[in-house]
Each structure stands twice: as C-alpha cells, then as structure tokens.
What we know:
Blueprint: H1 2-22, H2 27-37, H3 56-68, H4 84-93, H5 100-112, H6 125-131, H7 144-156, H8 163-171, H9 192-205, H10 211-221, H11 242-255, H12 269-274, H13 295-305, H14 324-330, H15 350-377
Amino acid sequence: MKRWSLWLALLILLLGIVGPVWAAGTPEDEAALKWLRTQQQPDGGFTSGFASGSDLGTTVEIVLAGVAAGQDPSAWRSAAGASPLDYLAAQVQAGAVKDASGLSRVIFAAVATGQDPRAFAGQNLVAALRATQDAKTGQFGDSLYAHAYALLALHAAGETLPESAVALLLAARPPEGGWAMFGGVTADSSDTNTTALALQALAAAGKRDPVPAALAYLHAVQNEDGGFPWQKPSSYGTDSDANSTAVVLQALNALGEPLSAWSPKGKDPLAALKALWDKGSGGYLWQAAVPGANILASAQAVQAVEGLTLVQLPVVKAGRAPQPALAAAAVTPTPVPTPTPAPVLPASGGTLTLGWLWLVVGAGLLGSGLLVRRQGRD
C-alpha cells in the first residue's frame, strides 16, 4: 500500500513538471502566433496589415494572444532588439497614449505581462484613464465600446468601477436587448461586439439583470455554423467572422454559459472559430469566403480559443521589464487610431500556474510518502 502511495506521489510530481507544457496553446494557435510574429516591426510593435508601421491596438491584441497561449511576449524581439513592451513603453513616454481606448489597451498589456499599470514607462496609466471620464455623462471614450473596454481595464487593474459609468452602461440599451457601438436606444442598432464587451464589463461590476435579454439578442443573430456576424442585417454581410465570434465566445465564457446551449446545428462558437483557421498560413481568416489570414482576426481568435476573457486576464511574468531608453531611441511615435469594431478579450492564470500547483502538491505527497516509509522502517 505504501509503495502504491509512493508511485502515486511520483506520478503527480511528474504531472506538475509537464503541466505547463500541456497548458501551452493548441497546435493551431501556436502556428497562428508564429505567423503573427512575422508581422513584428523593428520597433517591437505589430502592423495592423492596413497601414505601414506598428499599430498600438493590434500590438496589444497580439500580446494578449501570446499570454493566452502561455508565451512571454517580452521575449519576442525584433531584428532591432525591441519587444512589444518596448514599443508600448515608447508610445507612452512619447505622449502618444492619451485617450481612453489607448490607455485601456496598454493597461491590459501591462497587467497581462506582470507589469505595474500605475508605473508603466514612468506613467500612472490607471489615473490617466480615470481622468478621461466625462464628469457630466459618466462616459469613457467616444463610443460605448470604448466605454465598456475602459471599465474592464479598470477592473483588470483592481479598481472599483465608477457607479456613474456602470449606470450609463445599464441605461444605454436598445429594445432588442444588446448594446450599440455608439450608444443610444434606437431599435435594431445593437451589434454583437459591443454587446459582448458590455456583458463582460457588467459581469466585472457584478450586474446580471441585463444578461437574459442580451443573451436572447445574441441567440437571435447567431448563424447556423455557430458563429456570429457584426450585425443582422449588416452592410458588412452576415457571414460569421472571426472577430465577432471570438469576442462573443469570450463573453459566453465569462458568464459561464455552456456551449452546448449555443449549437443551433450541432456547431458552437468555438467550432465556428476553429473552422476559420487557415492551414496554409497558420493564421485565421476573417470570414470563410475572404481568402488570406487576417492579423487582428488571428490575434482575437487565439485569445478566445485559449479561453481568455477580459473579466479575468491571464498573467505571465515577463522575462524583463520594458526598456524605455531602447524603445524611445528606436521608435517614432505613431498616433493611436480610433478603435475599429473588433474587440480584445481573458482566461484565468491557470494555464501558467496549474502546473506549478501540481508540482507543489506532488512534492508534498512525495515527501509524505517517503516519511511514512521511513517511519515504517523505524
């Protein structure tokens, strides 16, 4: 009996050692990250694919994708030796990150990589984000999407959410039950992306009253392949796209929704997202009918497939802190673009800590087994 307990302890110890390997991203997501890293610019940031040079929003999305898959983005060095954190630090230092959306994004990247958002590149990003709130309306940013995103960034930083900001989100609801990007209560103006982000923000605030109506709206616009479009009807078309499907999947995961309840024809949102993986490039397609891997779609798809939600961010301890001096010398600040209707998303830190938990438990059991064995001999 003692021998079996000893072997069991050894087995658990081995599980602890290999746990972090199992927790790494799926082969498809590893391939997607490999492809995304080919888009890294000399300054350490990443291009959006729509303009030259690095883009702050895209860079943060890719950083979150890397963390979701268990990687350390601070180790992603460009040919010039700069990392994504270097790029973000340089942008903050140069004063290019001032609006709610940009501040929120860098806060997410800082928290997810184990940095202090209150002392990132010499700036208190949390205080700066709070200062952008409109004193009269309670709104952050220029859209309801940016508003919900800011609430989630504050939550990620451990802040108590402003009651006025939460109240605004609760009040700005079209009759179909979702939320519209630019706010308002006009019928049929809801979109899946803003709705998914608002649901996560309200989950962070502990508000669940609007959830049933919002989920009913999402059910109504879900496609038979399990995925989601931006809107129905929509000038962008109503085929499932990776960005919308990813952010809705994040919201469903954040709310603890069983995906079996989201399988209209036997395929759920996760299956729909995986179907958009492009074996040729390793990235993800925006829509099945649109050829060529899409950078932002790939980053958001990896996040969602790996289980990331914005309510509970995964955290990886970066190998080293951002080096503003290196980044500032190598980077010319680029303006932070207005966010496009495509979100960023969270997973728990379990992918990075579960293996070490098993390691500790295994070591404890192993020690106990050896102690019992020694006492038996004595």
